[in-house]
Amino acid sequence: MTNKMIPLRIAGVGYCVPETIITNDDLTKLYDTSDEWIYTRTGIRERRVVSGEENAVDLGFKAAQNAIAKAKVKPEEIDLIIAASSAPVDLYPAMACHIQARLGIKNIPAFDVTAACSGLIYTLEMARAFIGSGIYKTILIVATDNNSRLCDWNDRGTSILFGDGAGSMVVTQSDDGIDDILAIDIRADGSIGEYIKLPLTGQNCPLVEPCTEKPVHISMNGKEVYKFVVKIIPQYIDKCLEDAGMKAEDIDYLIPHQANQRIIEAIQQRLGYSDEKVISNIKYYGNTSAASVPIALAEGVESGKVKLPSTAILCGFGAGMTWGVAIVRLREGIC
Ligand code: UT7
Fold first, then answer.
1. Which residue's CA is the nearest one to ligand 1's atom 36?
2. Is residue 51's pLDDT more than 50?
3. Which of 4, 67, 210, 239 is the most core-located residue (most Cβ within 10 A)?
4. 6-27 residue pLDDT tens
């Protein structure tokens, strides 16, 4: 018996961002900050945010429609929906179930994964396991977040960073025997989970002693996250390159999670890549959590910076702490 996995094809990638733009200058109306401080520390100049009743389901649905169109699959061919969201609209129904209903696909499994900004890499690895084992043939991944609704807009250290958006990927069984995943690795370290937190609120049964109420806001120890990430991500990129039997110079692009331009540049320097090889759109979108990698990928192709066919290192990191790296093949026509 052989345990060879069925190869996976990345068939389509799509994205969607809300229309409303909040600039760094706009934020000076909320607290003592400046465009200069935010831009030099993070590389962010503006971010998109949801407005009114708009939410991560709306963004995720549109991103999914775009990815499905690019993949040239019919919604009814999808066997499974996995949503990666760290700011879901509801804890339940799952985001994946909301998106399933909008797409009008009945009688397939749909569930969410909470891996914060590593969500795209986590769900890609799960999709690889389902496709590789032959359980499902066509999987829709939707990475969508509206962190702007969960930020503490009095906390200038954290709320400057986040923006809203969604990215989506359709992955299928590869029909030509070529696997689009050259290497992938996902990891977590729950012992440092306090670095980034978003508690749920709630109270004990009134017949027992009450518990402490927690504010429902994102809190982050930015310095510790920064130090952790610039150490761990290059290590796992090296590991994935080794697993793929490749060297950094064999890969065309680095498409990293967009959390801080200084983190992106630290990874870039380690890889010895020129600016042309590194995809960064943090200036316009901030950190869109799980959505940031697929947005950067799809937008990079749209703008002509990412040429197809090519190969790319994707990497994500965030609350958990979670992290993940994937080395992928990007075929013509995926976005
Ligand atoms: O996807 C999730 C992953 N998250 C990340 O990757 C975040 C990684 N970390 C970071 O990006 C950085 O830590 C931040 C950009 C969040 C913060 O930069 P920092 O250099 O670590 O600043 P700091 O928090 O140490 O603050 C330095 C100073 C403080 O003043 P004092 O105490 O030195 O007087 C802050 O009060 O800067 C002050 N400060 C600000 N000043 C103006 C903090 N936020 C602001 C602000 N405007 N928005």
1. 157
2. yes
3. 67
4. 999 999 999 999 999 999 999 9
* 193 within 8 A of 321, measured Cβ to Cβ: yes
| Sign for the pseudo-dihedral over CA of 113, 58, 8, 242 | negative
* 88-94: Cβ within 8 A, 24+ apart: 88/56, 88/112, 89/55, 89/56, 89/57, 89/146, 91/200
CA distances from 162 to 16, 149, 221, 245 (A): 16, 10, 14, 36
Reported as half-sphere exposure (CB side, CA atoms, 13 A), residue 307 has a value of 4
Please give the structure tokens belonging to residue 141.
């991944």
Q: Which residues contact 254 (CB under 8 A, 6 or more apart)?
A: 267, 268, 271, 273, 277, 278, 279, 312, 313, 315
The pairing of beta strand 310-318 with beta strand 253-256: parallel
Copy the structure tokens of residue 233.
């991500």
pTM exceeds 0.90: yes
